[in-house]
Amino acid sequence: MPVAAGVESEGHNIRLVYEAIDQPLGELPAGVTITLGNALPILEAGNEAQLNFSIKADNTAEPTGHLILKVLSDERELGSVLVNYQFSEASPALFYSPSFIETGVALGETVTETLRLENQGLAALNSLQVELLETDGSPAPGWIFVTTKKLGTLAIGESREIQIMASPSAGEGVYEFLVRASSDNYATTDILVFVAVTQSGIGSVLFKLEDIYTATLDAEENVIEGLAGAKIRVQNDPVFTLDETLTTDENGEALFENLPAGRYKFRASAPNHQEITGRFQIKPGITVSERVFLDYNLITFEWSVTEIPLEDRYEINLDA
């Protein structure tokens, strides 16, 4: 809750107070708990700050209602705040990252991807389990599987990671699957998985470079799609001779094709911008997307040094 001091006054020990005497019925609402935040030791003239509080309820609380909080300082009562509330039954909420899995692997090789599941709700997620399926709901082939199927209870704020392993024996192509997450007290959730299977371990990466002017208008009122003319250098981590450099086009994009699968590092630079480095991984049969933002140097300095002679000076005092 925001509070502000007047231009010529300051407050000391500004705080919220929750008492039965201030409530409409002269008593605190049953089943409702208010936790008040710390007081503000001092609020100087003309400044603003926040007073915090939290509210929760148990099963004895009415689903709707209102209560009153008073705002006090050591100098005086500053006012009161009417809080209207509406409670609903606490429930879990399953979130996952990434939003989908896209990977690639060569025939005869193995790839492992990680999926993170998190309960961001207000109640435990019970009996959580996952399974890997074809998009029609039938079981996935044996060459792709999840390493852990039964995850048990996911407490409030808790997260778990599962691994998806693929060692394809099928022919080339892009295969689509579902990771289906289900529990006793939450709706079934499907997460897409795409696997590109190729004969060779070759992939691509598409860089998209942006800066503070991206998505603004140029002098001709055209939208600036990206940072054009930037240099991007990629280098394979274990094999330093795999080294390529491209320049971004008018859309700020640069496509590196036919790169052997593996780990790479990149360096992106442009005039009047700060250089940036990073890492990425090439996966067989797919094009990885890398979005890079370069900070713009709004101020630049140039200086030179001119040598000048310094005259030595000595002061001698003789004491007789």
TrEMBL record:
Highest taxon, organism lineage: Bacteria
Protein name, UniProt field: Uncharacterized protein
